[in-house]
C-alpha cells in the first residue's frame, strides 16, 4: 500500500499494527506475517506488520536485540513481497531514517526517544508516516511538541501512540483520557495494547508483563476513541526472545481483532 494511501486510511480507521516484538528469525517473522495477513483479509482490516531489527533499550546487556539493520530490513522487505502488507519498524538514530525508509512504510520512534529532535527531524525528512510513541514520563498534552517537530520539518503524516505511564516502580498504568487528549492535535491515535501491560524490569534482568489484560485494555481504548491498535504477537510467547510476557499469543489474535472491529463499528455507527 502506498504511504499516502496508508495515512489516508488511518484517518478514518480502524487499523492495526501487529507482529513479533523483535525479528528472531526469518521463519517466525514470515509465518506470523502470513497468518496476520490472512486474518486482516478475512476481517477486512488494514494491518501494518511490525517487528524490530534492533531493540536498543533492553533491560540487560545480555538480552537479545535482533539481527541488525541490514538483515532485518531484508526480512521485512520479504514480508512485503510475500504478503503485500505494509511494515513498521523502530529507528534509534537519525542516520537510520533514510535507509529504513527505503523498506518501511512507517518509521516508529520509541517512547524513550520521543523528545529527540534530531531523530524526529530525520524521520520526517523521509516523507514516511511517523509513529511516535508517547514517553512513559510525559503527559499526553506534552506530545504536541513532538508532533510540531515533525510538522515543522515538512511532514504532516504523524501518528501518536499511547503505551502507558510509569506508576511507581516496575509498573505502568493507562489513562484513557490520553486518547481524546492527543486526538486534539488532529492526528490518528494508536493504543499500544501489549506494552501497556508490561512490567518494566519486573523480572530483574528483563521485563515482565500481564498479557491477560491485553483484550481488556485494547477494548477500552477503542471504545475511548483510538483509531488504531498496536499489539505484539508471537506464535509462542513463552519462548519469545523479547517481551514474551506481554505478547498476545498468535492464535488469539483473530478473536481479539474481531472484537475490536465490532466495538469500533459500534462507536462510529
Automatic annotation (TrEMBL):
<dbReference type="InterPro" id="IPR006269">
    <property type="entry name" value="KDO8P_synthase"/>
</dbReference>
<comment type="pathway">
    <text>Bacterial outer membrane biogenesis; lipopolysaccharide biosynthesis.</text>
</comment>
<feature type="domain" description="DAHP synthetase I/KDSA">
    <location>
        <begin position="15"/>
        <end position="261"/>
    </location>
</feature>
<dbReference type="GO" id="GO:0005737">
    <property type="term" value="C:cytoplasm"/>
</dbReference>
<dbReference type="Pfam" id="PF00793">
    <property type="entry name" value="DAHP_synth_1"/>
</dbReference>
<keyword id="KW-0808">Transferase</keyword>
<dbReference type="InterPro" id="IPR013785">
    <property type="entry name" value="Aldolase_TIM"/>
</dbReference>
<dbReference type="GO" id="GO:0019294">
    <property type="term" value="P:keto-3-deoxy-D-manno-octulosonic acid biosynthetic process"/>
</dbReference>
<dbReference type="InterPro" id="IPR006218">
    <property type="entry name" value="DAHP1/KDSA"/>
</dbReference>
<dbReference type="GO" id="GO:0008676">
    <property type="term" value="F:3-deoxy-8-phosphooctulonate synthase activity"/>
</dbReference>
<keyword id="KW-0963">Cytoplasm</keyword>
<comment type="similarity">
    <text>Belongs to the KdsA family.</text>
</comment>
<protein>
    <recommendedName>
        <fullName>2-dehydro-3-deoxyphosphooctonate aldolase</fullName>
        <ecNumber>2.5.1.55</ecNumber>
    </recommendedName>
</protein>
<keyword id="KW-0448">Lipopolysaccharide biosynthesis</keyword>
<comment type="pathway">
    <text>Carbohydrate biosynthesis; 3-deoxy-D-manno-octulosonate biosynthesis; 3-deoxy-D-manno-octulosonate from D-ribulose 5-phosphate: step 2/3.</text>
</comment>
Amino acid at each position: 500500500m502506498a504511504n499516502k494511501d496508508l495515512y489516508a486510511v488511518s484517518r478514518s480507521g480502524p487499523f492495526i499494527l501487529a507482529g513479533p516484538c523483535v525479528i528472531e528469525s526469518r521463519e517466525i517473522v514470515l509465518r506470523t506475517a502470513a497468518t496476520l495477513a490472512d486474518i486482516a483479509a478475512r476481517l477486512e482490516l488494514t494491518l501494518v506488520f511490525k517487528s524490530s531489527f534492533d531493540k536498543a533499550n533492553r533491560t540487560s546487556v545480555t538480552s537479545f536485540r535482533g539481527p541488525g539493520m541490514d538483515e532485518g530490513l531484508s526480512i521485512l522487505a520479504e514480508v512485503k513481497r510475500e504478503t503485500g502488507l505494509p511494515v513498521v519498524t523502530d529507528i534509534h538514530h537519525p542516520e537510520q531514517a533514510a535507509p529504513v525508509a527505503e523498506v518501511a512504510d512507517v518509521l516508529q520512534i520509541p517512547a524513550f526517544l520521543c523528545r529527540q529532535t534530531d531523530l524526529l527531524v530525520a524521520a520526517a525528512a523521509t516523507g514516511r508516516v511517523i509513529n511516535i510513541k508517547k514517553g512513559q514520563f510525559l503527559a499526553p498534552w506534552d506530545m504536541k511538541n513532538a508532533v510540531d517537530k515533525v510538522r515543522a520539518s515538512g511532514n504532516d503524516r504523524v501518528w501518536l501512540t499511547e503505551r502507558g505511564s510509569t506508576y511507581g516502580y516496575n509498573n505502568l498504568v493507562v489513562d484513557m483520557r490520553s486518547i481524546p487528549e492527543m486526538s486534539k492535535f488532529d492526528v490518528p491515535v494508536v493504543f499500544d495494547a501489549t506494552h501497556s501491560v508490561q512490567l518494566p524490569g519486573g523480572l530483574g534482568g528483563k521485563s515482565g508483563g500481564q498479557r491477560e489484560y491485553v483484550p481488556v485494555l485494547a477494548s477500552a481504548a477503542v471504545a475511548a476513541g483510538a483509531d488504531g491498535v498496536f499489539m505484539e504477537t508471537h506464535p509462542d510467547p513463552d519462548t519469545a526472545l523479547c517481551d514474551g510476557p506481554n505478547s498476545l499469543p498468535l492464535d488469539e489474535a483473530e478473536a481479539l481483532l474481531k472484537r475490536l472491529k465490532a466495538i469500533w463499528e459500534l462507536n462510529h455507527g
